Amino acid sequence: MYKWQKMFSLTDKYSHEKTESYWQLQRQNDLVESITKFSQLNTNKAKNVIIFIGDGMSIGTTTAGRVYMGQKLGKNGEEHTTTLDQFPHVGTAKTYSVNKQTPDSAATATAILTGVKTANEVIGMTPATNCTNNQDVETVLEKAAKLGKSTGVVTTTRIQHATPASAYAHIPQRRWFSQVGARSGCKDIAQQLFDKRNDIQVLLGGGRVHMHGATDTDVLDEFGNNVSGDRIGSDQNLIQRWKDAFGDNVTNLYVNNKEELNSVAPETTDYLLGLFAGKEMEYRLSNTPRSQVQPTLPEMVEKAVKILRKNEKGFFLLVEGGMIDKAHHKTLVKYALEEFSEFDKAVQVAKQLTSDDDTLIIATADHGHVFTFGNDGPRGRSFSNVMTNQNQRWNTIGRYFSNTAYGNGPNFNPPAWKIMAGAKRQAESNEYQPLTAIKRAGETHSAEDVIVYASGPMSHLITGVHEQTYIAEVVSHAACLGNNADDLEHCRVSA
Length: 495
Ligand SMILES: [Zn+2]
What we know:
The protein is α/β, with parallel strands linked by helices.
C-alpha cells in the first residue's frame, strides 16, 4: 500500500473523490454551466448596483476563508463553495496607487468608486488637491443619486473610514474624520456625510464619535449610556441635526443598536441612519457584550436592500466588510476568516433579495494582505494547524511551522520553546497568530492583484486583468450613469 493510500483510508470524507467518474461529472457540469453562461450574456440595463468591498480580502483570504467555512460545516473544506465562488464572471484588478506600489484603502476605494487612481490617503480627489482647486472626482454613488436612484453605504468600520468615505467624500487626508486635525479649507468627512443627507437613504456602520460634539450630553451609545463625541464647537450634534433635517412627510429613523435596527420597517422608512459603535464595530468573533448589541453585516445588508429597492428608479449600495483588514493587520487570522465568512454571507443575502435580471453585483477587495495559506498539508488541515517536521532537531524553529503565515507582522521569530509549549494551546485559541517572516509592529497590505467577482447585467465585462478604475467604468456603463447613456442601446429601455 502506498503512503497516500494509507492516508486516504484514514477518512471517508473524500472517498467519493477517489473515482474517475466523480471528476468527469464534476467537470462536465462545470463546462455546461460555462457554455450556457457565455451563450446568454446579460446585456440588460442595471437598474440596481451593489458593490461589495472586502477590505484587505486577498486571494489567500478567499481560499483560507472557503476552507474555514467548509470545515465549520464538517467538511474537509477545500471542496466547499462560497457564495463568491458561485459568481459567474471573475477578473482581477491591479491595486497600486499613483504614488505607492502597496496601496491603502483610500486610494483603492477611490479607484473603484470614481474611476480615477489617486495617492494613498487621498479620498475622492486627484493628488493635486488643496481642497480649493477643484480636484474632486465624482463617485458612482453621486452619479446614481443625480439620476434619482436611492443610495446607501453599509460598513463594519466607522462610516467615515476610508473605504465607505470614498463613496461620498472628497478630502486629501483620510484621517480627517471630524474637524480634529483637519486643514482649514477642507471640510471634514463627517460634515461632508451630513451635507449629503438628502442623497444617501441608508447609512449603517460605526463612527458615532465623529458625528457629535465633546459637550453633547444627549447622545447614547449602543447600551443606552451617555457618550461624548470629538466634534469641535457648538451646534455640532450632526445626529440630532440629521433627525431634524427632514420634513414631516419623510420618515427618517436613527438607530443605535441591533434591536432598534430589527424594529425598522423597510416599507415605511425613507431614510435610515444607524450608528452602532463609537468608532469601528466589534469583530464577530470577539463575542463581547458590545458585539451582542451590534447588528451583523448580513443583517445590515438585508435592511439596506429592503429600504433601497423601493425606489422604482433603482439604487446604488456600497457594502464594506471592513474588519477583515483590521484583523489581518494584527495577524489575528481566525478573526479575519470569520469576517470573511460574514462578508460572504452578506453577499448571499444581497443575491437572495435581488434579481440577476436588473441588479449588477460586484464583489472585490480594495487591496490584499501579506497573508499566505498552505504548507505541504494533507486534506482538511486547519488554518491554525502547527505542524512538526521530523527531519529537524526538536529545538529548532524549522521543526514547528504553521499552515498560515504572514510576510511581516508582530509574531516574528518566537523562540522554539515558545512555539512548542504554546503551539497546541495557541492554535486552538481565537487569538492565534501565525508566524511572520519580517518583524513589524503591524502587518501590512500587499501589492498583489485582487479578485473582482460580478453577476447580473454586463457582469461578463468583468474578465481579464484590469486597472481597478475599470470597475467604475463597468458600473457606469451597465447602470447608464455616464454622459454617453443616450447612445447606449441597453440604456434606452425604461426603468
Ligand atoms: Zn488596512
